[in-house]
Input
Amino acid sequence: MKAGLHTIGIAFLATNDAPGSELNKPFVRTLNSPGQIPGYLFYPGVGQTVVEGPFDTKDTQDSPSRRKIFICRPTGQRDEEVCARQIVSNLARRAYRRPSRADDLGILMTFYQAGRNEGTFDTGIEAVLQRVLADPEFLYRGEPEASTLQAGRTYRISDTELASRLSFFLWSSIPDEELLTVASQGKLKQPPCSINRFGGWSPIRNRKPSSRTSWASG
Output
């Protein structure tokens, strides 16, 4: 069986079309349990199905998704930490939808080193990915207000927060590279960056209608 989505059906083939005369009417019931009660005919039933595999697999060496993650490759063990920092910084920037900070790198590099100690360079990056995907800043789109803000007062969100609003509202995903770069430079609110210019972007041309994005309109 090839990898991918498959529809699997399991059934016991009928060998007799004659109506049964048993008392428990098994074909009317939703679940048949095997038994040996006199006067009752019990048909076999499927209680659980387990699909195992794949077997004899090889590690993926190259794919479009891996190329987006591994933006560099170390030429030797001496270069691993430098390359890992570049990868981690890029992952944090994309996942958190803002420029990466020193504290981001400090936390994530700890996970890289732990994974690296248990395996290879790729194992270390895998540990970083697991940590990033479990981070609340990746899972939730927060817009914290200033601690000095008075109750009931409005406040201006940052350019990167505005970029997230736009991207999730317009194409239900994180900001692309161009939008994130403009926001990181603090230029998103400037007049040349009017929302009208987003109409030509491929994410908008290719986006699918979604009722889940109405929350972003606020």
Summary: Residues 159-217 form one domain. The radius of gyration is 27 Å. Confidence is low (pLDDT under 50) at residues 211-218. The chain is about 40% helix and 0% strand.
